[in-house]
UniProtKB/TrEMBL annotation:
Protein family per UniProt: Belongs to the CTL (choline transporter-like) family.
Any Gene Ontology biological process: choline transport
Record-given protein name: Choline transporter-like protein
Native source species: Cyprinus carpio carpio
Cellular component annotations (GO), alphabetically ordered: apical plasma membrane
Main localization (coarse): membrane
UniProt membrane topology term: Multi-pass membrane protein
Pfam family, one: Choline_transpo
Residues annotated as signal peptide: none
Functional description taken from the UniProt entry: Choline transporter.
Domain of life: Eukaryota
Transmembrane segments: 37-60, 251-271, 278-297, 331-352, 377-402, 473-500, 521-543, 583-602, 622-642, 662-683
UniProt keyword annotations, A-Z: Antiport, Cell membrane, Glycoprotein, Membrane, Transmembrane, Transmembrane helix, Transport
Lineage of source species: Eukaryota, Metazoa, Chordata, Craniata, Vertebrata
Length: 729
């Protein structure tokens, strides 16, 4: 026995010496000083720079460039004088299709080499200028549609012939069925819309191969018609309005479902102090029972194939999994694997039963702590609001940065076959509002079109670097907010554990006190941990970018190396999150800097590694069951209610009035998951904090009157320990 204890002490010394008794320690230290000041100053400078970047982006950026389409003169559709014309129409969509990808050109702000005008609605049918429009005395107003012509041109007052109007691109010579996608009139490729048999009899243009053009349009919009998925499968605006209408009719019941999820989550956590032992053992026995059933089933299948002559050498390699299930050796392999797993689980249950009891007791103690500090359950709301601010600021800044710089317009010949367009100088800029095509009499197709955004100037030349800075600062802020939440909750739960007489010795407003301590003393330490995590996340983002950028040029070797790098940094991120989480607990309790806290936490956990693994798995199993119970229960209830299977007498709600009854169900299920995750994250933090405090308690104290244990009586009973009564004279 003594030899075993000596070996254990020798192993423990590899991860530092156990914590020593400190007579002055009675919980989270109040007399502490600021930690990691250099990192605090650096974080403040980054935040200040982030604000400056946001201001500059707001001054130079114009999100209308992304949110609204533009016509050929550079004016926005859907705003200002074009408020009633939300979509942009391309005079000759074929030029867009044969020049570049329609969708990419439209979304990236690139101009197709054709005139574009703002319209109220996109064309929904085929039309082409009939030959009779060229007859002497024919009036253009009788053939062209004024809504699709250049706004400055009036058909009723014109003296131009139909041919002149077409050559000057004042009105389109033809148009096709299109649908508005993000404000752009793109081809409607669904069904037989572009079947040549559906074309008007006069739908021919000089030098135009109709079938070849249709193929070009289809290729430009994606294989099989990419816009078809976006446009003709459903009308986005119509569906959006219907969904909004459903939310307007059912929002009270959606809120009621979310309230039920919140109540069930809180009750589940509070009742764990009574139900945790039963739930944990039921879940463990359930896992063993599933394994036993699997063994029985595999044995049954193995015996039923006794007469089968199939084996792996006969089958070979095939993608049909059902063939392998007809091979007797397959079920033998499954049987052996399940037997080994079942044996391991049974042995673990036998030898780790005491540690499982400790895990159950800590779970019960966490439930008691929540009962005494109910405010901790609602702290995730603070974290959610702060994260929402970070995400909103990042999104708005990114949008304004992407649209920084004045738009550049250049003179472009839309049709070089018409006249002599050599008079147009290379890269000749223009003002779309002042441009007049009569300045180029030999090139009637000259137009002033948008090319790109100005990249000159110090700010514009560094837009890419500023976007990287925006992402870096955003990740740092998000990780800091999460770290602040961990440290705040850890301080509150630490105050509970180190209160000798509970609840009498629990401080007043422990959550607020812990929050103020974290902000006053440990911004630097929290920022330090968040910075390390942010750097790893930035490397992962760069790897994903490189993998996406050079995916087609990679050979199997480089793909393997890239996959290994991504996997390694994913594991590193998980490890750093684990270290940070426990470091924040030590910071909240002892007030040391990040490095010392991380070292102490890691050493403490490594000295109790088996307890760590058991507690982690038992807690994960229990919380997974809790989330399944809350989300599944509320989801089933929502399904029966919104599908009309549950009638609610005395209410005005009718399921038949909903357009899509599954939308409220999805909303309730998603909201229930977020609520359950928020509450259970607090509980998980409480378990981790109490566990570290429990390990410290075991190392610091021995149960004597001078060094009494702070753990609950249930934990002392499991460990066969007790606090000795002081000697009376």
């Amino acid at each position: 026995m003594g030899r075993k204890k000596q070996e254990e002490e020798q192993n423990n010394s590899e991860y530092g010496e156990p914590a020593q008794y400190d007579p002055t320690f009675t919980g989270p230290i109040h007399n502490r000083s600021c930690t990691d000041i250099i990192c605090c100053v650096l974080f403040m400078l980054i935040i200040a720079g982030y604000m400056v970047v946001g201001v500059l982006a707001w001054l130079y950026g114009d999100p209308r460039h992304v949110l609204y389409p533009r016509n050929s003169t550079g004016m926005f559709c859907g705003v200002g004088q074009n408020n009633d014309k939300p979509s942009v129409m391309y005079f000759d969509i074929i030029k867009c299709a044969t020049a570049t990808n329609i969708m990419a050109a439209a979304l990236q702000g690139l101009q197709c080499p054709t005139t574009q005008v703002c319209v109220k609605t996109c064309p929904s049918e085929f039309w082409i200028l009939p030959p009779s429009a060229h007859f002497p005395g024919a009036k253009p107003a009788d053939f062209f549609n004024q809504d699709y012509c250049v706004p400055s041109f009036q058909l009723k007052d014109t003296k131009y012939s139909a041919m002149d109007i077409g050559n000057k691109e004042l009105c389109p010579l033809f148009y096709m069925p299109t649908t508005s996608v993000l404000g752009r009139c793109l081809p409607s490729l669904g069904g037989n819309a572009y079947n040549p048999s559906n074309f008007p009899s006069n739908f021919t243009l000089p030098g135009l191969d109709v079938n070849g053009t249709l193929a070009a349009i289809r290729n430009a919009t994606g294989a099989g018609g990419a816009t078809n998925d976006v446009t003709n499968s459903f009308n986005i605006k119509d569906v959006g309005l219907r969904i909004f209408e459903d939310f307007a009719k059912s929002w009270q019941w959606i809120v009621a479902g979310l309230v039920i999820a919140m109540v069930v989550s809180v009750l589940f956590l509070l009742l764990l102090r009574f139900t945790a032992p039963v739930l944990v053992w039921v879940l463990i026995i359930g896992v063993l029972a599933v394994g036993a059933f699997g063994i029985w089933y595999c044995y049954n299948e193995y015996m039923s194939l006794a007469s089968s002559s199939l084996n792996f050498s006969n089958v070979g390699l095939t993608t049909n999994v059902q063939v392998y299930l007809q091979v007797r050796d397959t079920w033998l392999a499954f049987l052996i694997i399940l037997c080994v797993v079942e044996a391991i689980l049974l042995l673990a249950l036998i030898f780790l039963r005491t540690r499982i009891l400790i895990a159950i007791a800590l779970i019960q103690e966490t439930s008691k702590a929540l009962g005494h500090m109910m405010s901790t359950l609602f702290y995730p709301i603070v974290t959610f609001v702060l994260l929402l601010v970070c995400v909103s600021y990042w999104g708005i800044t990114a949008l304004y940065l992407a649209t920084s710089g004045a738009p550049v317009y250049k003179v472009v010949a839309m049709n070089t076959s018409q006249g002599d367009c050599s008079v147009i100088r290379a890269n000749e800029t223009c003002d779309p509002e002042m441009f007049n095509s009569t300045q180029y009499p030999t090139c009637p197709s000259a137009r002033c079109v948008f090319i790109n955004y100005n990249t000159e100037g110090l700010f514009q030349r560094n837009l890419f670097n500023l976007q990287i800075y925006n992402v870096f600062a955003f990740l740092w802020c998000v990780n800091f907010v999460i770290a602040l939440g961990h440290c705040t909750l850890a301080g509150a739960f630490g105050s509970y554990y180190w209160a000798f007489s509970k609840p009498a010795d629990i401080p007043t407003f422990p959550l607020i006190q812990s929050f103020m301590r974290a902000l006053r003393y440990h911004v630097g330490s929290l920022a330090f941990g968040a910075l390390i995590l942010t750097l790893v996340q930035m490397v992962r983002i760069i790897l994903e970018y490189l993998d996406h950028k050079f995916k087609e040029a990679q050979n199997p070797c480089t793909r393997f190396i890239m996959c290994c790098l991504k996997c390694c940094f994913w594991c590193l991120e998980k490890f750093i999150k684990f270290i940070n989480r426990n470091a924040y607990i030590m910071i909240a309790i002892y007030g040391k800097n990040f490095c010392v806290s991380a070292k102490n936490a890691f050493s403490l956990l490594m000295r109790n590694i088996i307890r760590v693994v058991v507690l982690d798995k038992v807690t994960d199993l229990l919380l997974f069951f809790g989330k399944l119970l809350v989300v599944g229960g509320v989801g089933v209830l929502a399904f029966f209610f919104f599908s009309g299977r549950i009638q609610t007498p005395g209410t005005t709600f009718e399921t038949a009035a909903l357009n899509y009854y599954w939308m409220p169900i999805i909303t309730v299920v998603f909201g229930a998951y977020l609520i359950a995750h928020g509450f259970f994250s607090v509980y998980n933090m409480g378990v981790d904090t109490l566990f570290l405090c429990f390990l410290e308690d075991l190392e610091r104290n021995d149960g004597s009157p001078e060094k009494p244990y702070f753990m609950s009586k249930n934990l002392m009973k499991i460990l066969n320990k007790k606090n000795k009564a002081p000697k009376t004279s």
